[in-house]
Amino acid sequence: MDSSLHQVWQAAAGSPFLPVVAKESQFTIASVLLSLGLALTGIFALNRSLVNVIALGVPASLAIAGGTIYMFCAVGVYI
């Protein structure tokens, strides 16, 4: 398998990258995930127990993390 960088570049040009979630729907998905995470966090705050950590806390943190990443992708990060 002796391929140069130019051959790899040419092969990649024929198959463009297509993201799983289209750019137009990233903001909507981010908003839904962040809202869901915030709602689950509020419900979890009302009744904190070990069962609720698994049932509400973990899904809330995953929803907020995923929503934040999608929001970064949707609106960009400017420093």
TrEMBL record:
Any one annotated GO CC term: oligosaccharyltransferase complex
Biological process according to GO: protein N-linked glycosylation
The keyword Transmembrane belongs to this UniProt entry's keyword annotation: yes
Protein's cellular compartments: Membrane
Keywords: Membrane, Transmembrane, Transmembrane helix
Cross-referenced InterPro entries: TMEM258/Ost5 (IPR007915)
Listed transmembrane segments: 27-46, 53-78
Membrane topology listed for this record: Multi-pass membrane protein
A Pfam family matched in the record: Ost5
Presence of the UniProt keyword Transmembrane in the record: yes
The protein's role, per its UniProt record: Subunit of the oligosaccharyl transferase (OST) complex that catalyzes the initial transfer of a defined glycan (Glc(3)Man(9)GlcNAc(2) in eukaryotes) from the lipid carrier dolichol-pyrophosphate to an asparagine residue within an Asn-X-Ser/Thr consensus motif in nascent polypeptide chains, the first step in protein N-glycosylation. N-glycosylation occurs cotranslationally and the complex associates with the Sec61 complex at the channel-forming translocon complex that mediates protein translocation across the endoplasmic reticulum (ER). All subunits are required for a maximal enzyme activity.
Similarity-based family: Belongs to the OST5 family.
SUBUNIT field: Component of the oligosaccharyltransferase (OST) complex.
Protein name: Dolichyl-diphosphooligosaccharide-protein glycosyltransferase subunit OST5
Record organism: Trichoderma arundinaceum
